[in-house]
Task: structure prediction
Amino acid sequence: MINFLLARIGSAIITIFGASILAFVILRAVPTNPARLIAGPFANDEVIAQVTSQLGLDKPLFVQYFDYIVSFFAGDWGFSYSAGQPVLSQIVQRLPASAELALYAFLFAFIGAVFVTVLVSFLASKWLDRLLRLLSFISVGVPPFWLALLFLMVFFEQLGWFPGPVGRGPAPGSVHTGLFTIDYLIAGNFSGFATALHHLALPALALALGPFGYLVRLLRANLLDIVNEPFVTVLHAKGVAPVSTHFQHILPNAFLPTLTAGGLILAQLLGGSVLVERIFVWPGIGTLVIDGILRQDYAVVQAFIMLSAIIYIGVNLLVDILYGYVDPRVRRS
Amino acid sequence: MVGVVMFAIIIFIAVFGRLLWPVDPLRVDILGSLLPPSLEHPMGTDDVGRDVFARFIQGAQVSIGVAIGVTIAGTLIGGTLGLLAGLVGGWFDTIVSRTMDAILAFPPLILAMAVAIGLGPGIVSAALGVILAAIPWYFRLLRSEVLRLRTLMYVESAQALGASSFRLIRLHILPQTTSTIFIQASSVFSFSILTLAALGFVGLGIQPPTPEWGTMITEGLAYALTGQWWLGFFPGLGIFMLAVSANLIADRLRDIYDPKSGARLSL
Result:
């Protein structure tokens, strides 16, 4: 187990190293001189030369790379000149909003997918199964930002069931976790909790549909694989009740490979939040990134790109380790 | 079947749309702005009176054209690298595989975003971003196929008879992988449609005034909640139909070529 752990962590570190080089190469390919962007269109050559040396852009590339890595891991992610704030503090401020949205999107996707897939496989109806397959394709193919727009047009504008694009709603009085729903619960304020959930529902659902589709596809394939295993036939032959065969024997076996979707789903949530948050004016990192792109204030965007690579590698590592922990066969290979 | 029909409709609109609906997508008509869908304007008009259906047609051409280019480029580059890495092995394999790992370390959409920013917003850099994200998928697929096929008896005997690497690939390995490549290509096509639209949506795709579906949704955002639903609705519908139908076709191909997954069809 120790060897397995060390090997996985080692390869994750190499991957982070490779990814950082890639990010550096891609982002330093910027054809516009960053110094000119920062100094503004009216700056003269002298000022630009000054800003260039301030940013270290006149040093050799490998020194620039080294500076970039050291300052990234030291938490110096650059300065957002349009907000007049260091990027790190901007991201930290916005993190809870995005985290809460992603958390609920994940919960909706996971609970929904497990419920629907298990139900359909238990009922063993061919028509329901076809419907489920179609549903999974539709949910993977919907552009999340378009879905968010449709949700707003139908459930807010037409029906008035949910709040419009106003962000997270009123903030709780005392901050513990930064997640509104949790903070309201800690304060014992249940109507506040309901309001926060009400604001979360539409964006979280729009974000959840993609991961939901992936999970349904994966779970369904696993369930069908297991249903055809000889041990299930034996259980049937022994006269074990279908309910207990299904829930005690088939489901636990089918569940395990779903873990591997962890990384995929995270990728969907990270990318999706950039697309969905803007439509709901959600005060999260996704909105921050889009504002950065529109204002050509790329420091925020660069930090976000590197950060999401690290989170993504981290989650994949965690999934690998968990998988090795629960399934000894993986450890040995 | 549903997939093929949906796909055919959009392709038809993209190819023959301009002939059947010869309206200039860039013609501004301020007096006729924000008109709801009617016979005269099947998808309504936008905030400066441009015909949304004409823009939809051109958006379809842009999306499909770029997505086809991206899919072909990704297949050629990623596929060739995968074939070579599997056949040559050694340090070449190690270096390329590590590079691919680094690319895969980024969530695909975010990688494409990074490239689009690095090279400056525009349709070419957006396309390059999507190609870069797609290359490792082909690479991994073909590399593992080559490694698998190489151990098969008939390939080994061809090699023992003195067949060159090029001959091995051309006659014995590549023909065995075509179905896999086609399946992968239709998934990548769907991925590029969605990603290009997403990049357009965040302002990193093709630059206005050329219509692109993702950008059109952004433009429609301001009017979505004041009743002018058609601005954002139709381009999204186009993206949705194209992406879903390509995925359905990929799945159908998988069923046809892979008997094992075909058995899964029936419960």
User: Anything to note?
Assistant: The mean pLDDT of chain B is 84.
